[in-house]
């Protein structure tokens, strides 16, 4: 299975935000609420990852966690690809 | 004064001398091949000419007939038809006929059977008669009609019964391999009336608008799929003086709604209005419900159409199939038809399909495929912004694939 790197997922996240007229800050600690990255954007990013890898992500696999920053999103999706 | 009576000759239908252009030849209904058919018969046609010959045969002899293209009827369906008492006959194949004997039963004279398009599973039989399939009555202006539909479908019978029963209603038949270039054929033979799905018209506008404009159309009819304002307006630009109509019809309820005012939807005051000989149209729980005098056999009374209808101002809009139209995005309901109409209203979009896609957190997200107009450069971000200006955030398609060609099926539909 093809796996996306954290940097590649970051690029996709940038595209999602760009389509919404928003910018992705360089700082991984940036707060998602301040960036304006919401659940619709998160779902779209997941679909983009699925399209790029050709694999469906299994969101039931990892335990619930707090996703508050850009870095949290990237870490979560990197981990999800390995489930 | 006395009148000599000759031996009874076959009574030809009133349109028998109408002109038919089929497979490169110009002839009349009378010139079609004479068929000898068992009864009841499931006649499977490989060519438009023999399908028309079977229709005329029925009009003259009243033979119980199910007519279809051979390609629509697989081995299982053939067996099913034989069990239902039909002799399965290939009309124009080298090895005509089927040696397996059908179940024995008496024929039902005058009965015509249609196979529904089967978008919700296997095709099913709906019983009609020439009378219940003939929805255009009364004196009509002389017209040369394009017939782009697959033989045996409800839409095909609509055009065919018109030409069979009304003098002055000529036919130009489009063979499947001519579908992409029908405007040239139509212009050559003076077609001035054409009926097709919105997808059929969008493809013609997309491929060659100048070629389409050369067809001297005075009547354009749309049906078989939801008809939005954008496609009506685009056709109006090309044919400013023509009558542009849309029709809601199906093999189950017949032709139930016909609208000529150039607007999408129908007037809200048509709802629940009962008149003798006319269908009654209602909306129940968001579903179009029709009681029609032109219904298929056994379908009298209110028929739930499975189509979604919603009142918008002074019109009732039919947006798509109920089971496919509603997309649930994290608890918010989105009509795929409404989103599709927003996309097709973009000046550089020739066609769009909107669906739900499984997505984390929200259950489903709205996604789309679009075909740009000729020469247009479209990107996802432009269309997302266009939709975001007109739709709630959850209804904006997030993944939009750009295709180069409008996909189409044998039914000339692309969506359902």
Automatic annotation (TrEMBL), chain A:
SUPFAM superfamilies to which the protein is assigned, alphabetical: ACP-like (SSF47336)
Pfam families in the cross-refs: PP-binding
PROSITE patterns (UniProt xref): CARRIER
Recorded superkingdom: Bacteria
Domain (Carrier) ranges: 3-81
InterPro entries assigned: ACP-like_sf, PP-bd_ACP
Protein name according to UniProt: Carrier domain-containing protein
Automatic annotation (TrEMBL), chain B:
Gene3D superfamilies attached to this UniProt entry: 3.30.300.30, N-terminal domain of ligase-like
Chain ranges of the AMP-dependent synthetase/ligase domain: 102-282
Keywords assigned: Ligase
Domain (AMP-binding enzyme C-terminal): residue spans on this chain: 341-410
InterPro entries for the chain: AMP-bd_C (IPR025110), AMP-bd_C_sf (IPR045851), AMP-dep_synth/lig_dom (IPR000873), ANL_N_sf (IPR042099)
GO annotation, biological process: fatty acid metabolic process
A GO molecular function held by the record: medium-chain fatty acid-CoA ligase activity
Transmembrane segments: none
Family statement drawn from the similarity comment of this UniProt entry: Belongs to the ATP-dependent AMP-binding enzyme family.
Name used for this protein in its record: Long-chain fatty acid--CoA ligase
Organism: Verrucosispora sioxanthis
